């Protein structure tokens, strides 16, 4: 049986890098995608992924509720992305020392696919930028990453009611923008709202 | 219900990429564990750090302005301020409008090393800043502590100023904490920049003759952001990032972008005055950077009013450095 997040976090807190590595393997994909959806650049998102986990390791004295490791990582990612430039400077030494390896050959098909995804992300980001930053955070976490309201509240350290109101406000603004600009939805499937309690 | 934004599908990192990224992370956190903690310093660590060779690689001159003692001092305070540098033969400089502030340091931090660690933790800069007590400067004529900073920087002039500014803020609050506890003062400091390539660069440190206990504004981050955004809008500058340091009281760092570097440089003093105040300054420090349309810095200025340290630089192709006035 695989160890739970809580077990891995407890072992990480005790200073076991291997346990932290397992947490990374488990959650890297989602955190990477969250970064990508906020930045729109695959390589930068990979760097931000590293920064998020370096920051999590640095803060490993934090006692987390058993099911809140991933929401907490989203919270760190949100802060890292909000201060991206500073984060990059902060971890400049580490990022350069652990420069991204060319693990994947830059095959033409993969490169085209990446570019296509980056274009989609840029389109989404340009719409998101019409929202206040706090609403962007809530919208992407709730809709883009399908977190529950409770988890978003934990990630952003705000009350659940605030999550609801910011999401509602974000939707209203986006609806207004869409009706005003005649924006048409992209070809990719619209993200379904995650079921909420 | 669907939403109005189409996010791209979830991307997958290939198994090789995942493994590489995991190795990348693990190699860093196991490479030097101490970089992720600010250890309580031992005598051996202090001596090792003080003997560390420092390589000076600054290629572009940075104007470091010692603002302490300058005529811009404003003293509207109540009572007589103490002197952070411990020199009581001249009146210390006061920038704030009022006195009566002391840093909140955990009571468990009682020794100078513990206070240094506590303040650095409070700065929350992670691996980007390390500080330790070091041997006092050879030319020191009085007793006191010296601080040795290592700060991460990208090596650009603006990056160096930004990194050194963070050290300036930390130094100021350490000095305040020492003063509040009746300890010997901080009488010197060195700041070393850690470059991405592993080399180091000497950034100027130092201590000004500044009053202890200055009280600046304790505005919320949101209100600082609102104020900054309003000023930038009026100045036709595009915000790139607005962050607030909380070493002692709030200290904003504002990076902006412009399509008209010459005009932005010419108006820099006015903009900085509007953003951060000048008589008196609103915050315990500030960092201001102007980038051109390509994102390259063309001007940077910082101030730390608890140490009396100010730094500034302007791209000589944009403006004469003498035209940039430091408001500290």
**Please, what is the oligomeric state?**
heterodimer
Overall mean pLDDT score of chain A?
79
Global geometry of chain B: globular
End-to-end separation of chain B in angstroms reads: 55 Å
Number of strands of chain B: 12
Proportion in β-strands of chain B:
15-25%
Number of E-type strands of chain A? 0
Write down the Rg of chain A: 18 Å
Query: Roughly what percent helix of chain B?
Result: 25-40%
Distance between the termini of chain A: 29 Å
Percentage of residues in DSSP E strands of chain A: under 5%
What does this structure look like?
The complex is a heterodimer of chains A (197) and B (328). Chain A has 197 residues and is mainly alpha-helical. Helices cover 71% and strands 0% of the residues of chain A. Chain A is built from ten helices and no strands. The radius of gyration of chain A is 18 Å and the shape is globular. Mean pLDDT of chain A is 79; it is low at 100-107 and 182-197. Chain B is of the alpha+beta class. In chain B, 27% of the residues lie in helices and 22% in strands. Chain B has seven helices and twelve strands. In chain B, the strands form three sheets. Chain B has a six-stranded mixed sheet with strand order 1-12-11-10-9-8, with helices on both faces. In chain B, strands 3-4-5-6 form a four-stranded mixed sheet, sandwiched between helices. A two-stranded antiparallel ribbon of chain B has the order 2-7. In chain B, a hairpin with a 4-residue loop joins strand 11 (297-304) and strand 12 (309-314). In chain B, helix 3 packs across helix 4. The longest helix of chain B is centred in the middle third of the chain and has 24 residues, at 157-180. The model of chain B is unreliable at 32-81 (pLDDT under 50). The interface between A and B is large, with 69 and 53 residues.
């Amino acid at each position: 049986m695989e160890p739970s997040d809580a077990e891995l976090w407890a072992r990480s807190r005790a200073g076991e890098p291997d346990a932290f590595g397992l947490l990374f393997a488990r959650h890297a994909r989602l955190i990477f995608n969250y970064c990508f959806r906020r930045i729109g650049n695959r390589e930068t998102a990979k760097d931000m992924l590293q920064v998020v986990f370096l920051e999590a390791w640095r803060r490993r004295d934090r006692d987390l509720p058993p099911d809140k490791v991933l929401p907490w990582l989203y919270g760190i990612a949100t802060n890292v992305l909000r201060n991206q430039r500073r984060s990059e400077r902060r971890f400049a030494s580490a990022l350069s020392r652990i420069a991204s390896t060319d693990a994947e050959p830059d095959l033409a098909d993969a490169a085209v696919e990446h570019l296509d995804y980056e274009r989609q992300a840029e389109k989404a980001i340009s719409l998101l930028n019409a929202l206040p930053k706090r609403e962007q955070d809530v919208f992407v976490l709730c809709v883009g990453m399908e977190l529950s309201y409770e988890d978003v509240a934990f990630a952003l350290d705000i009350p659940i009611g605030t999550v609801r109101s910011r999401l509602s406000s974000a939707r209203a603004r986006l609806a207004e923008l869409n009706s005003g600009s005649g924006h048409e939805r992209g070809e990719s499937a619209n993200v379904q709202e995650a079921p909420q309690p | 219900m669907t939403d109005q934004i189409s996010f791209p599908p979830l991307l997958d990192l290939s198994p090789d990429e995942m493994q590489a990224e995991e190795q990348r992370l693990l190699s860093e956190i196991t490479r030097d564990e101490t970089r992720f903690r600010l250890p309580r310093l031992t005598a051996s660590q202090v001596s090792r750090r003080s003997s560390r060779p420092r390589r000076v690689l600054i290629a572009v001159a940075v104007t470091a302005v010692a603002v302490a003692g300058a005529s811009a001092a404003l003293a509207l305070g109540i009572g007589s301020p103490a002197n952070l540098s411990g020199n009581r033969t001249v009146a210390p400089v006061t920038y704030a409008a009022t006195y009566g502030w002391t840093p909140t340091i955990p009571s468990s931090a009682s020794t100078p090393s513990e206070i240094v660690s506590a303040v650095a933790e409070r700065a929350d800069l992670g691996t980007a800043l390390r500080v330790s007590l070091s041997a006092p400067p050879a030319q020191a004529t009085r007793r006191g502590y010296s601080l040795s900073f290592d700060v991460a920087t990208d090596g650009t002039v603006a990056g160096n100023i930004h990194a050194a500014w963070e050290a300036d803020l930390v130094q100021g609050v350490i000095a305040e904490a020492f003063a509040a506890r009746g300890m010997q003062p901080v009488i010197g400091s060195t700041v070393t920049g850690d470059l991405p390539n592993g080399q180091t660069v000497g950034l100027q440190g130092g201590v000004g003759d500044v009053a202890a206990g200055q009280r600046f504004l304790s505005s919320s981050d949101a209100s600082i952001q609102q104020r900054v955004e309003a000023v930038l809008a009026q100045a036709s500058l595009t915000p790139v990032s607005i962050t607030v340091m909380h070493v002692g009281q709030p200290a904003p760092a504002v990076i902006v972008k412009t399509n008209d570097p010459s005009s932005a440089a010419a108006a820099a003093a006015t903009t900085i005055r509007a953003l951060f105040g000048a008589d008196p300054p609103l915050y315990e420090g500030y960092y201001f950077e102007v980038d051109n349309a390509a994102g390259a810095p063309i001007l940077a200025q910082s101030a730390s009013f608890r140490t009396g340290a100010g730094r500034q630089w302007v791209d000589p192709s944009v403006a004469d450095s003498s035209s940039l006035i430091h408001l500290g």
